[in-house]
Structures are given as structure tokens and as C-alpha cells.
């Protein structure tokens, strides 16, 4: 079964086709318009999705060498609701016109299952660290659709902290890749930022962000590369610590890491050095993409799941309630 997946929950208009042998196409258009504002402007995002969606889907089908798929999947949430609705309504209309099965996908499940795109042997049970701009959670995946939250951030998502610190350093948006690059020339031990704790295995990144701000105010001559490297190291320490402790607590040694922050070179190296089987997708499948939605939708469709046209999009949709 070849499934077309459509993603439009934030600032990427994306479509991909996944079949039995893996990814057949993956087309992502990143909306540049938000860079000048320093963050995603929801109304601009919806408009840009609407302008781009047809060409993106057409290109995904063309690259996959097919005129029409066997089923259609689309992100149904969580995300900016006006943005989600563009891809979601487009997908429903396409499924209706083509008379094909349709399934709405939880964006977080798309990320969570993305490490298995290139590694079909990765089957539940496994631990899943989803680190993105909007979410930072560690789940226990016992089956497709059966996810339990083991830990989560109690305030900012890790990606949000990257974006905010990048802003303090006047680097631009999105901040994650810019900090990643700058940190390569910096000393990760230059500033000892805190590794904030929260109850149990939960995480907190808001205090870390505030510490960066105070350090910059106190010592304005700090080298930006050193600040970037030290901040990044603190985030990596927290995430690596929680993954290790969760693996011990749950008695599971397979860990799937996904979401935009999983593209971070230092985080990838740190997690891959743990005494666990760690699966991290290639860079292009870490940030938002259509292939991961096609893949997650395909897993659901293969289990016989279908949604009717009455399915509604959701701005908030916890994965453990999916
Ligand atoms: O998964 P994603 O594309 O969108 C959401 O679902 O949120 O994640 C975007 C986030 C942004 O905060 C971005 O700064 C961060 O992922 N990011 C990175 C890197 N690449 C993207 N953070 C750290 N290092 C990177 N290389
Ligand atoms: Zn995402």
C-alpha cells in the first residue's frame, strides 16, 4: 500500500509517499516568511500553506512516480489549528475525490515512529524521546497506538529553549540549527549552566533559559560560541540523563529519538554513546516532514483503521490519549 502523507501543523508545508519498501518521495517547503519576525506567525503560516499545498502534493506524487496513492494520511493535530486545517482539509478532499481510505494522524506519533522509517526492525516495545519545538516527552511505546508518558517537560520544550537562547544571542530563527553550528566553535565547559530538575523523570528548560539570560547580562563579553556550546551541553546532559534513567526504570534498552532537536549533532553523539540501542532518523526526517505522517498513517491503515470525513482537527492532542 502506497500512502500519501500531508503535514502542515507548523511552518513546513510537506508531503511524502511511503510504500512497503520505504520512502518513495518526501517534499518539504519551509516557510521563510517567519524568519523576519523571529517566530512562527500563525496567520502567515496558514496562508503560506494554502498557497503551497497543491504544488507540494503534486511534486510528492510525481517524485514517487504515481498518479494517485492507495490511501491518504494527514496531520490532524496537535499544532496551529489554522495551519493544520489546510493540509487536513486538502487531504480529506483528495481522499474523497479519489475515493480512497483516509486516516488522520497525531503529529507526535508521526515523530515517534519516524526512527522506524529507515529501521523496519524497530518494533515496540521501545522508549521514545520526542524532542521538538512544541514538545519534549519520553514515552513508553508498547504497540502502535499504545503510548504511555514516562517523562515530560514541565515548562518549555527543548526546541523552544534553543529558539529563545538563539534570539538572546541575536542568531535568528529557527535557533536550533544556528546554535548547533555556532557551538562547534565553542567550549561546552566555559559556563556551568544549571541542569534543572523536576519531579520524577520530568524535565524543565525554562530556568536554564533564564540562567543564560542572566549570564549574558552579568558578563556581556562572554563569547557567543561558548554560551551556545555550554547551553547545548546542559540540554544534552538533561536529555541523556532522563533517557538512561527511564531505560533502567522501564527495563527497556531500545530508544527511538525524534523531533527537530534530534537533528542536533551534539545530542545525537551523546545519545549514541549511551549503552543502549539508540535509533535516530537521518536529519531530514527529524524536522517536520510528510514521509513521517505517511509512515504513521500507513501503520494505522495496515491495522485496518480508517477515519470518516467527520474527523475533526485538534490543536491539543496528547499522544497518550491517541
Ligand atoms: O519537529 P519540528 O520540526 O517542529 C515541531 O513539531 O515543533 O521541531 C522544530 C524545532 C525548533 O525549535 C528548532 O529550533 C529545533 O527543532 N531544531 C534544532 C535543530 N534543528 C531543529 N534544535 C537543535 N539543534 C538542531 N540542529
Ligand atoms: Zn514536529
Describe the structure.
- This protein folds into 2 domains: 147 residues, Nucleotidyltransferase, domain 5 (2-Layer Sandwich); 158 residues, ATPase, nucleotide binding domain (Nucleotidyltransferase, domain 5, 2-Layer Sandwich).
- 40% of the residues lie in helices and 20% in strands.
- It has 9 helices and 10 strands.
- The strands form 2 sheets. It has a 5-stranded mixed beta sheet with strand order 3-2-1-4-5, sandwiched between helices.
- Strand 4, helix 2 and strand 5 form a beta-alpha-beta unit.
- Helix 3 crosses helix 9 and helix 5 crosses helix 7.
- The structure holds 5'-O-[(R)-(carboxyoxy)(hydroxy)phosphoryl]adenosine and zinc ion (ZN).
- The site of zinc ion has 5 residues, from helix 3.
- Zinc ion binds next to helix 3.
Q: What is the count of DSSP helices, taking H or I runs of 4+ residues?
A: 9
Mean pLDDT: 97
- What CATH first level of the largest domain would be assigned? Alpha Beta
Strand order of the largest sheet: 3-2-1-4-5
Strand content: 15-25%
Count the strands?
10
Alpha carbon gap, first and last residue: 23 Å
User: What small molecules does the structure contain?
Assistant: 5'-O-[(R)-(carboxyoxy)(hydroxy)phosphoryl]adenosine, zinc ion
CATH topology of the largest domain: Nucleotidyltransferase, domain 5
> What structural category arises from helix and sheet content?
alpha/beta
Rg calculated over all Cα atoms: 19 Å
Order of SSEs, N→C? EEEHEHEHEEEHHHHEHEH
Amino acid at each position: 500500500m502506497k500512502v500519501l502523507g500531508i503535514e502542515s501543523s507548523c511552518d513546513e508545508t510537506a508531503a511524502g509517499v511511503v510504500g512497503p519498501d520505504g520512502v518513495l518521495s518526501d517534499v518539504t517547503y519551509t516557510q521563510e516568511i517567519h524568519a523576519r519576525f523571529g517566530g512562527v506567525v500563525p496567520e502567515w503560516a496558514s496562508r503560506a500553506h494554502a498557497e503551497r499545498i497543491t504544488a507540494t502534493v503534486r511534486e510528492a506524487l510525481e517524485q514517487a512516480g504515481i498518479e494517485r496513492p492507495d490511501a491518504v494520511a494527514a496531520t490532524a493535530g496537535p499544532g496551529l489549528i489554522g495551519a493544520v486545517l489546510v493540509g487536513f482539509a486538502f487531504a480529506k478532499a483528495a481522499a474523497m475525490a479519489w475515493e480512497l481510505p483516509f486516516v488522520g494522524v497525531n503529529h507526535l506519533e508521526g515523530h515517534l515512529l519516524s526512527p522506524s522509517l529507515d529501521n523496519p526492525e524497530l518494533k515496540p516495545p521501545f522508549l521514545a524521546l520526542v524532542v521538538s519545538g512544541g514538545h519534549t516527552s519520553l514515552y513508553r511505546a508498547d504497540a502502535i497506538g499504545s503510548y504511555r508518558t514516562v517523562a515530560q517537560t514541565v515548562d518549555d520544550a527543548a526546541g523552544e529553549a534553543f529558539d529563545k537562547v538563539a534570539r538572546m544571542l541575536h542568531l535568528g530563527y529557527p535557533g536550533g540549527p544556528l546554535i548547533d553550528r555556532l557551538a562547534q566553535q565553542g567550549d561546552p565547559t566555559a559556563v556551568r549552566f544549571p541542569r534543572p530538575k523536576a519531579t520524577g523523570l520530568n524535565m524543565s528548560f525554562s530556568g536554564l533559559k533564564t540562567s543564560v539570560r542572566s549570564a549574558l547580562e552579568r558578563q556581556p563579553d562572554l563569547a557567543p560560541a561558548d554560551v551556545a556550546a555550554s547551553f547545548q551541553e546542559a540540554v544534552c546532559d538533561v536529555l541523556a540523563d532522563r533517557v538512561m534513567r527511564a531505560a533502567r526504570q522501564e527495563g527497556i534498552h531500545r530508544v527511538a529519538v525524534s523531533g527537530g532537536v534530534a537533528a542536533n549533532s551534539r545530542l545525537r553523539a551523546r545519545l549514541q554513546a549511551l549503552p543502549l540501542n539508540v535509533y535516530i532518523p537521518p536529519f531530514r526526517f527529524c524536522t517536520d516532514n510528510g514521509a513521517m505522517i505517511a509512515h504513521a498513517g500507513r501503520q494505522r491503515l495496515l491495522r485496518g483503521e480508517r477515519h470518516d470525513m467527520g474527523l475533526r482537527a485538534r490543536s491539543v492532542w496528547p499522544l497518550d490519549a491517541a
